Amino acid sequence: MLKNPIPKVSNKLQYRAIGIINGKFTPHENKQLNRGFLVDNKGEKIETVVLGKALSLLKKHIDLKKSYYWVVYPKNKNTQNLHLQIAGIWDPYQLNDFPNDSTKTNSSKLLEELDLKDNYFSIRGELVFVNTKQKEIVIKISYDSKLKNLKNKNFKLVIKGELSLELLNSFVSLDINRDRNSLQLIGYEVIEKNFSKNN
Questions:
Q1: Could you tell me where the beta strands, DSSP code E, fall in the chain?
Q2: Would you list the DSSP string of 74-108?
Q3: Could you read off the pLDDT of 9-29 as tens digits, one per residue?
Q4: Closest Cα to residue 89, out of 60, 112, 114?
Q5: Which of 118, 136, 46 shows the shortest CA–CA distance to 82?
Q6: For residues 36-62, b (16+ Cβ closer than 10 Å) or e, as one string?
C-alpha cells in the first residue's frame, strides 16, 4: 500500500497547511542538524527547521548529499519569505513498506498516482484577508484546541492569488503551488461560507 504523504482530511473543517518538496537539506552546522536550508532542484534555498519526529529519521536514514521528498509545514510573514518545518520524509522505497521491484518506478510517478506533485501544498483554513490590488489573500490556520500547551493556537499564511471579497470569513480548502519563496493559489473549494459567524 502506497502511503500518501498528504493524507485525506479526517473531517470537513480540518485545518491544515502541509506540502511536499523535493530537494536536499543542508544544515547550517554539522553538529546541529535541526536548522538549515532546503535547496530545491532549481537551486532555490528555503530557510528550514527540522521538527523532532523527523530529526531521528534524518540522523538514521538520510544521506545529505541526496535529494528527497520532504513533507513540510509552511510559515511566512509575506509572499517573499517562505519558511519550512520538516515533518517527515516521503520515500516509498526506503522508509515505507512499498515493494521495491526491479522496474523501480521513480518517486515522482508514484506521487502522480496520488494526484500530487513536487511543490504542492494543501492549505485549509479561514479566509481572513483579501488584497485585490496586490492579488494576495491571508488564510488563518488554527491548531487543535485540545493542544493546550501551545502558545500560538493559530497562525496566518500569505498566499499569492485572487479570491472574491464575498468569501471573507469562509472556510476554504486551497491547492497551492510553491514558486521560489512564495505560495501561489492554483485552485480552491469553499467548504463553509460565513464560517467565523457560525463558530
A1: 16-27, 35-40, 45-50, 68-75, 83-90, 120-131, 136-142, 154-160, 171-179, 182-192
A2: EE-SSTT--EEEEEEEE-TTTTS-----TT---HH
A3: 999 999 999 999 999 999 998
A4: 60
A5: 46
A6: bbbbbeeebebebbbeeebeebbeeeb
**pTM for this prediction:** 0.90
For 138-181, write each residue's pLDDT tens digit.
999 997 655 555 556 789 999 999 999 999 999 999 999 999 99
How many of the other CB atoms lie within 10 Å of CB of 90?
22
Is the confidence at residue 102, as pLDDT, over 50? no
Q: Which domains does the chain have, with CATH numbers?
A: 16-116 (2.40.50), 121-198 (2.40.50.140)
Q: Which residues contact 151 (CB under 8 A, 6 or more apart)?
A: none
d(CA 137, CA 79) in angstroms, rounded, equals 10
Q: Are 124 and 174 in contact (CB under 8 A)?
A: yes
Distance of alpha carbon 110 from alpha carbon 2, whole angstroms = 8
